[in-house]
Here is the input.
Amino acid sequence: MAEEKTQSNYGASDIVILEGLDAVRKRPGMYIGSTDKRGLHHLVWEVLDNAIDEALNGFGNEIIITLHGDGSVSVQDFGRGMPVGKHPSGKSALEVIFTVLHAGGKFGSGGYKASGGLHGVGASVVNALSDFVKVQVNDGKNSWEMDFSDGGRKVGKLKKIGTTSKTGSKVTFLPNPDIFKENRFSYSLICERAQEDAFLLKGLKIIVRDERKNKREAKYQYEDGLKAFIEEVNEDHTPLTPVISFEGESSSMKIQAAFQYCDNYQENIYSFANMVRTKDGGTHETGLKQAFTKTFNDYARRNGLLKEKDKSLEGADIREGLSAVLHITIPEALLQFEGQTKEKLGSPEAKSAVDAVISENLKYFLEENRVVADSLVRKAVRASQARAAARKAREEIRKGKGKSRAERLISGKLVHAQSKDASKKELYLVEGDSAGGSAKQGRDSKYQAILPLRGKVLNTERAALSAVEKNEELSTIIHTLGAGVGSSFSAEDSNYYKVIIMTDADDDGAHIQNLLLTFFYRFMRPLIEAGMLYIALPPLFRIAKKGEEYYLFSNEELEEKKKQLKSGYTVNRYKGLGEMNASQLWDTTMNPETRTLLRVRLEDARLAEKRVSELMGDKAEMRRNWIEENVVFTLEDDFAKEVVHA
Amino acid sequence: MPRKKKSTGSPSAKDAMFERQPEVVERPLEDILADRFSRYSKYIIQERALPDARDGLKPVQRRILWAMLEDGNTFNHPYRKSAKTVGNVIGNYHPHGDTSVYDALVRLSQDWKIRWPLIDMQGNNGSIDDDPAAAMRYTEARLSRISNFLMEDIDKKTVEWSPNFSDEKMEPTVFPARYPNLLVNGITGIAAGYATNIPPHNLNEVIDGTIYRISNPDCSLDEMMKIIKGPDFPTGGIVMGADGIRQAFTSGKGRVMVRSKTEIEDKKTIQQIVITEIPYEVVKSNLVKRMDDIRFDQKVDGILDVRDESDRNGLRIVVDIKKEANANAIRDYREDKSPYHTFDNSYLRTVRA
Here is the structure.
């Protein structure tokens, strides 16, 4: 937290107007990503970010998020309270915050020392997309209230409603149901987010209250949040070391870190800068890796675990089985992100600062725990040997030794592509033989290979590597890609640079996608990290009218097209790939010139891990809770009414 | 959750475009998983594995019965080829594999699995030894008499209807059900996150209980348990202890243990343990095999022979034991070690409870 309060007058003159607001209502997707569930919760994050920035700067250490019975949500903080004075533009500052896009206290240098919500679109975007917004501010003297409604078109007066000695702001809003089809807030999603924020900011207490039908409340507050973070991430793994956590300061940056080694082979590093997740890493993460590599090698050499002529251990081998979380708090002046999104930290100072703090603490840990340290070094040596051996084995398979076994396994199943250029080749994993046939006939044989899968593949969430290798379907996939499996998997060795899952657009297809995603996540994660895993999107509808026909991929497109065609059309709903001819399948789903693919990304490793074990693991209880929270059981189906407009 | 301001887009939110451009939409793994899982779980819970509380049927069962009624394939008409029924069900209401439909059809006719079979099947419909039924081109089927009561008055606007998969026909979402079929026939189903396992009950008891409940809506469990004493298994057997039953009736979750019905007969030179009823859902051939294994492994002294003497007169498994052996002890041991107990974790959970 800020050791000196930056400037306790976060006043009206700190708000800078950058541009107008109108476009938000027109194109909500540009501001909040989408208008589905994700976008809906984005509104909460926007408001929550503002509350957390107050806490991050040392003002107030409690935040209350309440889901109200009427569908609205409120976020209350106990910071300084939003400014209520007059803004130079003539309006009240509060009105400016909520009605002018790109207005905020974070552009100038006055209000905040460190801040995550740099983009500052926050409050006004929420207002633009809400039915109503109610803001209550306590500034230590008076209580103020201001109402906005109808997407910010109607602005109420700033009213003084009483006197108070408290400070803080409370923002309540109800998202516009016309913009958000799914307008039910998910308690569990908000809790997950609140927990992550509480992990990162020591002492911050976040309370999430659900006052809807199913009343409940969760409190998140951690003395050592990063340690708790790692403990949660590694819940399902066998630890090799306790969780080690420490913090330090270097060149006015505050660095907190925690790490633990487990007996798995993956490396999970979660990095944050000013409470913002830096998914693509950046300078601070480089600093951490550098520190681990250097410190471990120094230790190994000093203690004779590496002989003079031995090569130094590689970073990747040292980090095998490592889970680490890193949080750096950087003053605004030094904060730099690379690219348009804030997902990669660019501040050059961060690298040496993180390196310094981690090296020092890690060194102490290793020296004070010689037995554990020695075993970690030996583990890294083994990892490096295994890596070398796996690479050798893969090369042998490629050159001939062991090739025939792999070839026999995939012969008769895989339909090869002609090209030898892996970077251009695509592997289609197709559900069922009946669809496999169409895919074989419809494909571009130069670059597209087809591997039909029979029925449901094994759920690999709880499967051991040996069980996966024994499973016929999965081992065929492994050998077809030819890039190893588990820790020996290497994405650049893959025979195909695009792996495309193509299933029916029905419920079982959804399940098969999940089973395959789990397999790739657990046993070929680098493939996902490299952005090589895709899901094909076959059309859901065909609409035809006198010789014209169109394929449509969503309900929205269908509605649009219906309006355009007016009447006299027939609609088919596609449920299986087998319902399409080979040429139709090519036109709609496989032709690289026209198709739409869904690329699977790993954005938030903690959430991905949690979701996979929650939904695909063997704990029925967790799954049931998730279903009760997230699945709406309705039998909506308005398709019948619309079939024929003759 | 990353705090990202970048547009990730979603296939449903993008502008409708008719001249398609190649496009790659990025979505995070956890979102795809959650989306697919909610879809699949919703389907499997709502439309596949769990019964409706009102008629005690899973969708595939309801569709079979409805397709047969629609076809006039009732108890007072001649049998019709099973393959024809299966074809009707797949073609009109249930676009899935033929084996799963035929398996469901066969199960509805098996009187060792269903207390009151809803289907009357002509030909080999399997056996308690888990022999498969004859192929659907051989067997014939029609609705049984009791199915009539399940569907009676369905044409009198008693139930909701919904369009079938191709929107060409309408199908009932539930049957009017003149008796509580869920309790009478019981059901087992495993969905995602939820499962149900309800044992069958006695038809007369359940109907008496229902009438009593209608006249005394506030009656206690004790009163009700005087009428409905517990499960009633089509295969007989002996329920051990009533605590589990009470617990299941109170909380919806309980464990009922069932044992075989046995007698010990004294012959001239040997004794015999004669089993005439076995626990519900135990496969008889497995049971005999397991008992024979005890003999082979000589885990208990004194067993001479294990024979399955079942025939058209009924179920009969005989264990020969030495004259001087302790028949009761052998029986107890064997009951411990063979698949003798049915543990009924009755989650009384249904789609519309």
In short: Chain A has four domains: 12-220, 226-387, 402-539+575-602, 542-573+605-646. The longest helix of chain A spans residues 370-399. Residues 542-573+605-646 of chain A form one domain.
